[in-house]
Amino acid sequence: MLKASFPDVQILDGQGAPIFDGPLQDLRFPEKLIIGKSMEFFRDPEPCFIHRSAVASRLAAELDLLLREQPDLSLEDMEKSCPAYLGEYAGARRLRLKKVE
Description:
The protein is of the alpha+beta class and 101 residues long. It has helices at 31-42, 49-69, 75-81; strands at residues 8-12, 18-23, 72-74, 94-97. 40% of the residues lie in helices and 18% in strands. It has a four-stranded antiparallel β-sheet with strand order 2-1-4-3.
């Protein structure tokens, strides 16, 4: 089975300093979001590791699609389609594709 390959991203604070710098699939999503999406996808209020992983992969895939359309997203842009996805990163203001040099 092939594993999805996601790009490297950065989460920036209000001054443009990185809060997170790494692969999109390594983002931490808020517990409340994981539980809510687990209920939506699996009707599971206490998701096991498999359901948690599936939810996190789906959330990362949704962000990947957004970043393909707009490689630099403000928190306001994300709130329209991905509310609270960056809730684990205090001070987060932007999510952007990391430029490979």
